[in-house]
Design brief:
367 residues, mainly beta, Methylamine Dehydrogenase, Chain H, Immunoglobulin-like, 3 domains, four-stranded antiparallel beta sheet, three-stranded antiparallel beta sheet, 1 helix, elongated
Length: 367
């Protein structure tokens, strides 16, 4: 049996059903105060995939992408705007509601004031209204989590509930109370090369000099501390020292990285320094409930490694490790790990390495 619990102002909702029913949705169980019918789930009570509730109203997202709303509707918080389709999540406040569409935009409706006639704008989604992956609604404020890990907050801010603490980065979940806000932040971890050649996975702060942090999402297998930056004529590439010597390159030491300024660029193209790094274009749809398409450009042919990491820095799956021609490419990820198991919902990092250069992207999976 799978269950998801959501607490409202004075009531609670439970989304439940068998694991087999996940693709077809679940039923909703509601209990607690029912002054406005917020616990009277409309029939048919089937095919729900997400729920949330405000102080006196409830919201449910169906498998077809529509939102069902019931309970107190004095401010129109249950009047879902047309077209009622394409939604993947919903959130309810005091007198307003939010719906997150699969395209990353937010739709808001209902009360746009503080209840005393003073405008606060909890339904005025800030521009650009795109790239959102999660929503939450407070008493008279709203929160949206972006795919880049930042939070956008708007509406009533009398208690600082919209003042996201710095740094506004690396968040993976948001929630809102009556006059306060919450968020889950992940601290990116990666491989740290110690001066004795050993490797450990830690945060950047946990890798003080003379250690060399390899970057978010990097791993210790294979050990990056037994290789380093090799400066060749046209670009920098990560190699073991003996291989660098065989290519006639200049080896900068174990654990050193190919940053843009690591090596002197000897060649130019039309008067500009030559480069040979990959360029990440997109990974989407994000959020995705299934397959993800990763697109990137290669300015020069050569070996490419494309990997997926979770937020802990653990390697989830290596999608490609082969030579590819220059130009635009795309690789599809089915949302499964190297063992063929479906991964859980969350934020995942894509890492593309070619010609000693690394570029990363982010995708959000929802199950």
């Amino acid at each position: 049996m799978n269950r998801v619990m959501q607490f409202l102002g004075f009531a609670a909702l439970l989304l439940c059903g068998t694991a087999q029913a996940h693709a077809d949705g679940y039923s909703v169980v509601a209990w607690g105060r029912n002054n406005s019918g917020e616990c009277d789930v409309p029939a048919p009570n089937t095919d729900f995939v997400a729920i949330d509730g405000g102080v006196g109203h409830s919201l449910g997202v169906k498998t077809d992408g529509s939102i069902v709303a019931w309970g107190y509707n004095h401010y129109g918080q249950c009047d879902v705007p047309a077209p009622n389709t394409g939604f993947v999540a919903a959130a309810g406040g005091l007198g307003h509601s939010l719906g997150l569409r699969a395209d990353g935009s937010i739709v808001a409706w209902g009360l746009n004031e503080d209840g005393a006639g003073h405008y606060v704008g909890q339904c005025d989604v800030p521009l650009p209204n795109s790239d959102f992956v999660a929503v939450a609604a407070g008493w008279n404020n709203s929160l949206g989590l972006k795919s880049d890990g930042t939070i956008v907050a708007w509406g009533s801010d009398g208690e600082g509930q919209c003042d996201v603490p710095s740094p506004n980065a690396d968040f993976v979940a948001v929630a809102a109370g009556r006059l306060h806000s919450l968020a889950v932040r992940t601290f990116p971890v990666g491989a740290c090369c110690r001066d004795d050649g050993t490797c450990s996975v830690t945060t950047q702060d946990g890798c003080p000099a003379p250690g060399i942090w390899q970057g978010a999402g990097t791993a210790c297998e294979p050990n990056p501390c037994l290789m380093g930056a090799c400066c060749l004529q046209l670009y920098c590439i990560i190699l073991p020292e003996d291989e660098c010597d065989a290519y006639g390159g200049s080896y900068l030491g174990n654990g050193t990285l190919c940053t843009p300024d690591t090596c002197v660029v000897f060649a130019t193209v039309d008067g500009n320094p030559a480069t040979a790094g990959p360029r990440f274009l997109s990974a989407g749809p994000s959020p995705s409930t299934g397959e993800v398409v990763i697109r990137y450009d290669l300015p020069a042919p050569g070996p490419v490694v494309l990997e997926i990491f979770d937020q802990s820095g653990a390697l989830v799956r290596r999608l490609s490790q082969e030579s590819q021609p220059s130009g635009s490419h795309e690789i599809r990820w089915d949302g499964r790990d190297s063992g063929g198991r479906a991964v859980t919902s969350g934020v995942y990092l894509t890492r593309i390495e070619a010609a000693g250069r690394v570029t990363t992207g982010r995708v959000v999976l929802t199950k």
